[in-house]
Design brief:
- The protein is α+β, with helices and mostly antiparallel strands.
- It is built from 4 helices and 6 strands.
- About 5% of the residues have low confidence.
């Protein structure tokens, strides 16, 4: 079965591959968010029945993988401050901590990038 739909003004086409073809993280929807409030809103909506994975990825209740990230992350991981880059890439000795920058450090650096004052 073929279905066409629009999501946030973008057209998509999907094909039902039947029970033998399941969703995998090999296909994910990437959402670039303008600010932390948008990240939180979308993340919390997908979390309803979904499962957080890592690195801003979450699997929704239907098994579709999503990447919910702030648009500024691309800028932040190219920063000249190596400690900041490591923090936002999620470099850590502990795999559980990998790709899980602290919400507070991400919020602080997003504010600094946008020129806001704490």
């Amino acid at each position: 079965m073929l279905v066409e739909f629009t999501l946030a003004g973008e057209g998509y086409m999907a094909l039902n591959g039947g029970p033998n073809l399941q969703f995998t993280p090999a296909m994910s929807l990437f959402v670039s968010c303008n600010d932390q409030a948008e990240v939180d809103r979308l993340w919390n909506a997908l979390l309803d029945g979904g499962t957080p994975v890592q690195c801003g990825w979450i699997t929704d209740r239907y098994g579709v993988s999503w990447q919910i990230v702030p648009a500024a992350l691309g800028v932040m991981i190219k920063d000249k401050d190596a400690a900041k880059v490591r923090r936002h890439r999620g470099d850590a000795a502990d795999d559980k901590a990998r790709c899980q920058p602290s919400g507070e450090s991400l919020r602080r650096d997003l504010k600094a990038l946008s020129g806001e004052r704490s």
